[in-house]
Amino acid sequence: HGRLFGGSEPARGNFCFCGIGMPELYLVRHAEPQLKGVMLGRTDCGLSEAGRRCAAETMPRLRGEIVYSSPLRRARETASFIAAPIVVLDELAEIGYGDWEGKRWNEIEATWPDLVRAKNNDWFSVTPPNGESWSDVSLRVSRAIERIRRGPFPAIVVAHFGLNSELMRQLQGTEPLGFSQQYCEVIRIEL
Fold first, then answer.
1. What are the strands of the beta sheet with 186-190, ordered from one edge?
2. Residue 151 contacts by C-beta under 8 Å, 6 or more apart in sequence?
3. What is each CA distance from 168 to 49, 151, 152, 157, 176, in whole angstroms?
4. Calculated CA dihedral for residues 51, 11, 158, 106, nearest 10 degrees
5. In the beta sheet, which residues pair with residue 86?
6. Of the residues 24, 30, 91, 185, which is catalytic?
7. Any idea what the Cα angle at residue 146 is, between residues 144 and 152, rounded to 5°?
8. What is the pLDDT of residue 2?
9. Vertex 178, ends 174 and 184: CA angle to 5°?
10. Is the pLDDT score of 159 beyond 80?
11. By C-alpha distance, which of 33, 53, 52, 51 is closest to 43?
12. Is residue 113 predicted with pLDDT exceeding 90?
C-alpha cells in the first residue's frame, strides 16, 4: 500500500488513478470535522470550513468507479467531492464510543479512571460504557469488505480513523495500534 496525498501536506499535480492489474482500493479518512478534541465515534457532525476546503482540493483528484461511504455526515460530505457514484454502507460507520462520545479524553479519565487504565492496557478488549466492542467492529468491517470485493474497481472508501485501522488490519495485516491517517489522507491498497 502507499500514501498518496491529503493530511497536512497540500495535494499537488494531477492524480488519475486508473489501475490495471490488481484491483485497487483507495482508503480515505474524512476531512476535518466541526467538532475536534473529543471522542467523536457515532456523533454525526459535519465538516469544518478547513475540512471542506481540504476535501474540495484533494477529493476531486481521485478517480474510481464507486465510492463507499460511512453514513456519518463528515464522511458523506467528504465523499461528495469525488466524481463517482456513492454507496452508503452502514458497516463503515465509526466505532460507537457510547458514553465517551463528545467528551475529551481528560474528562473520560476523570469519570472512568479504572476503565481508562484497563483500556490503555488492552485497547481492543475493553469496551466503553454503552459502546461497541472491537469484535463487533471487526465483524462489521468483514461484512463491508465482502461487499467491496464484489467490485467495481477502482473503489474508494471514505470512513474514519478507527474503522480504517481495522480495514487495514483485515486487508493488509497491519496492526491497528500502529495505524496512522490524517484527515483527507488517501491510502492506496492493491487487493
1. 2-3, 186-190, 24-29, 155-159, 66-69, 86-88
2. 23, 65
3. 28, 18, 19, 12, 8
4. -50
5. 67
6. 30
7. 95
8. 66
9. 90
10. yes
11. 33
12. yes
**Which is the catalytic residue, given 94, 101, 132, 166?**
94
Half-sphere exposure (CA, 13 Å, Cβ side) for 90? 0
Task: List the beta bridge partners of residue 3.
Answer: 187
- Residue in the block written with cell 470512513: 159
Annotated active-site residue 77? The verdict is no
Task: With beta carbons less than 8 A apart as the criterion, state whether 55 and 77 touch.
Answer: yes
Q: Is 151 left (phi over 0), alpha (psi -120 to 50) or beta?
A: left
Catalytic residue status for 166: no
> Tell me, what amino acid is at 30?
H
Closest CA to 169 of 136, 145, 148, 150: 145
15-60: pLDDT as tens digits: 444 445 679 999 999 999 999 999 999 999 999 999 999 999 999 9
